[in-house]
Design brief:
CATH class of the largest domain: Alpha Beta
Oligomer: single chain
Mean pLDDT: 89
Structural class: alpha+beta
Number of domains: 2
Low-confidence stretches: none
Strand content: 25-35%
Number of helices: 5
Number of strands: 10
Shape: globular
């Protein structure tokens, strides 16, 4: 397997020292696209007729995943399989997550001996009208009461951040639970703009031993146009 230079392009939502991340802008630069070809990374047959944007996102996600893995195993890169809904199947002994939004893609990985799960997400900050319309589907009533009155975030920032945080929680837990669960299955109960951290608890059973009351934590970063979130699971106990 071809080795890739372990250049670090940090994911904005800070990862622990035991996880590695890599981010890239879309479309990929010529050198990045050449690395894809050298690694033999290509779109699966089921994506061959997809629009160019979707193909580019898939390829760029796999590229970032290999770059992140290269930081942990610079001498030997294992293949990344393709699972349900094109989700990555990580090499044995590793966990990871891939995310993308308009013009941006990133991946994060960790050794399974260090982390049981990892989830990252990036979203465009919603316009206020869209955020207001989607609010009741993404936030619980308690989340809205708790954070909307705090005044630390605009409506667009708040709804986008909670959306992204719950996506990261889902990506982290889904491989362990084997079940789909929606936004109302969890709620954020702490959210600090100053520290860039949040805390979340489950309101419903999601499988895999993750029951109501289970709590986890994550980190986030906000720019004028994007929100980034990350969740790392140290053990099944949280």
């Amino acid at each position: 397997m071809i080795s890739i230079s372990p250049q670090i392009e940090p994911f904005p939502a800070t990862l622990s020292g035991l996880a590695r991340g890599y981010a890239a802008l879309l479309p990929l630069a010529a050198a990045e696209s050449e690395s894809l070809a050298q690694l033999g990374i290509a779109c699966p047959e089921s994506l061959r007729k997809a629009v160019a944007k979707r193909q580019n996102e898939f390829l760029a996600g796999r590229y970032c995943a290999y770059r992140a893995l290269a930081q942990l195993t610079p001498d030997q890169l294992s293949s990344i399989g393709i699972g349900e809904d094109y989700a990555p199947v990580w090499p044995k002994g590793f966990v990871g997550s891939i995310t993308h939004t308009r013009g941006y893609v990133a991946a994060a990985v960790a050794r399974a001996a260090d982390r049981c799960g990892i989830g990252i997400d990036v979203e465009q900050v919603m316009a206020q009208e869209k955020a207001t319309n989607l609010c009741q589907h993404i936030l619980t009533d308690e989340e809205w009461r708790r954070f909307e009155n705090a005044g630390a975030f605009s409506v667009g920032e708040l709804v986008s951040l909670v959306f992204s945080a719950k996506e990261s929680v889902y990506k982290c837990l889904r491989p362990l639970t084997g079940k789909y669960f929606g936004f109302q299955a969890a709620e954020l109960f702490e959210l600090s703009r100053e520290s860039g951290t949040f805390k979340v608890r489950l309101l419903k059973s999601v499988g895999g031993g993750f029951e109501p009351g289970w709590c986890g934590s994550g980190r986030f970063a906000l720019t004028s146009s994007r929100v980034f979130t990350a969740v790392e699971l140290v053990s099944n106990a949280g």
